[in-house]
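sry for the spam today, last one i promise. C-alpha coordinates for design, 93 residues
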Protein backbone atom coordinates (compact mmCIF):
# COMPACT_ATOMS: atom_id res chain seq x y z
CA UNK A 1 0.00 0.00 0.00
CA UNK A 2 1.46 3.33 -1.05
CA UNK A 3 -1.49 5.66 -0.44
CA UNK A 4 -4.50 5.97 1.85
CA UNK A 5 -7.88 7.49 1.07
CA UNK A 6 -9.57 8.43 4.31
CA UNK A 7 -13.13 8.88 2.97
CA UNK A 8 -14.84 8.05 -0.35
CA UNK A 9 -15.66 11.78 -0.77
CA UNK A 10 -11.94 12.71 -0.76
CA UNK A 11 -10.32 14.09 -3.90
CA UNK A 12 -6.79 13.62 -2.52
CA UNK A 13 -4.97 10.72 -0.89
CA UNK A 14 -1.96 10.54 1.40
CA UNK A 15 1.14 8.52 0.53
CA UNK A 16 2.69 6.24 3.14
CA UNK A 17 6.06 6.21 1.40
CA UNK A 18 7.78 8.58 -1.01
CA UNK A 19 6.47 8.02 -4.53
CA UNK A 20 8.44 8.88 -7.66
CA UNK A 21 6.95 10.53 -10.78
CA UNK A 22 5.50 8.08 -13.29
CA UNK A 23 4.50 5.55 -10.62
CA UNK A 24 0.97 4.15 -10.96
CA UNK A 25 -0.61 4.04 -7.51
CA UNK A 26 -3.75 1.96 -6.98
CA UNK A 27 -6.02 3.45 -4.34
CA UNK A 28 -9.17 2.13 -2.71
CA UNK A 29 -11.43 5.14 -3.08
CA UNK A 30 -14.66 3.38 -2.16
CA UNK A 31 -15.87 3.06 -5.76
CA UNK A 32 -13.40 0.52 -7.05
CA UNK A 33 -9.63 0.75 -7.02
CA UNK A 34 -8.53 3.23 -9.65
CA UNK A 35 -4.86 3.61 -10.51
CA UNK A 36 -3.53 7.16 -10.62
CA UNK A 37 -0.16 7.87 -12.21
CA UNK A 38 1.78 10.26 -10.01
CA UNK A 39 3.08 13.30 -11.91
CA UNK A 40 5.38 14.80 -9.26
CA UNK A 41 7.59 13.32 -6.57
CA UNK A 42 5.30 12.95 -3.55
CA UNK A 43 7.14 12.94 -0.21
CA UNK A 44 6.08 10.59 2.58
CA UNK A 45 2.94 11.88 4.31
CA UNK A 46 2.02 14.31 1.53
CA UNK A 47 -1.02 14.27 -0.74
CA UNK A 48 -1.73 13.93 -4.44
CA UNK A 49 -4.90 14.57 -6.41
CA UNK A 50 -7.11 11.60 -7.23
CA UNK A 51 -9.01 13.54 -9.89
CA UNK A 52 -8.88 16.99 -11.48
CA UNK A 53 -9.49 19.79 -8.97
CA UNK A 54 -10.36 23.20 -10.38
CA UNK A 55 -9.00 26.49 -9.03
CA UNK A 56 -11.24 27.58 -6.13
CA UNK A 57 -12.64 24.07 -5.61
CA UNK A 58 -12.63 22.49 -2.16
CA UNK A 59 -9.84 20.01 -1.48
CA UNK A 60 -11.29 17.13 0.53
CA UNK A 61 -9.49 14.86 2.98
CA UNK A 62 -11.14 12.90 5.81
CA UNK A 63 -14.42 13.74 4.02
CA UNK A 64 -13.88 17.37 5.07
CA UNK A 65 -12.71 20.47 3.25
CA UNK A 66 -9.09 21.11 4.21
CA UNK A 67 -8.58 24.06 1.87
CA UNK A 68 -9.18 25.53 -1.56
CA UNK A 69 -7.16 24.93 -4.70
CA UNK A 70 -5.26 28.08 -5.67
CA UNK A 71 -4.80 26.75 -9.23
CA UNK A 72 -6.05 23.87 -11.34
CA UNK A 73 -4.63 20.55 -10.10
CA UNK A 74 -4.43 17.52 -12.37
CA UNK A 75 -4.76 13.89 -11.21
CA UNK A 76 -1.46 12.66 -9.78
CA UNK A 77 -0.11 16.13 -8.96
CA UNK A 78 1.32 16.93 -5.54
CA UNK A 79 -1.17 18.87 -3.39
CA UNK A 80 0.54 21.11 -0.84
CA UNK A 81 1.07 24.80 0.02
CA UNK A 82 2.03 25.69 -3.57
CA UNK A 83 -1.49 24.91 -4.85
CA UNK A 84 -3.63 24.69 -1.70
CA UNK A 85 -4.76 27.45 0.63
CA UNK A 86 -6.03 26.49 4.05
CA UNK A 87 -9.41 27.85 5.04
CA UNK A 88 -9.03 26.89 8.69
CA UNK A 89 -7.30 28.76 11.45
CA UNK A 90 -6.60 31.84 9.34
CA UNK A 91 -6.35 35.10 11.21
CA UNK A 92 -6.31 37.28 8.11
CA UNK A 93 -9.84 36.59 6.85
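last one done:
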Amino acid sequence: MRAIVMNPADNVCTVVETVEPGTAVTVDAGAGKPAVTVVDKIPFGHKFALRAIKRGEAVKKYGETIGLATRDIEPGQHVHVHNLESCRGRGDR
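The chain has a mean pLDDT of 89. ok im logging off now
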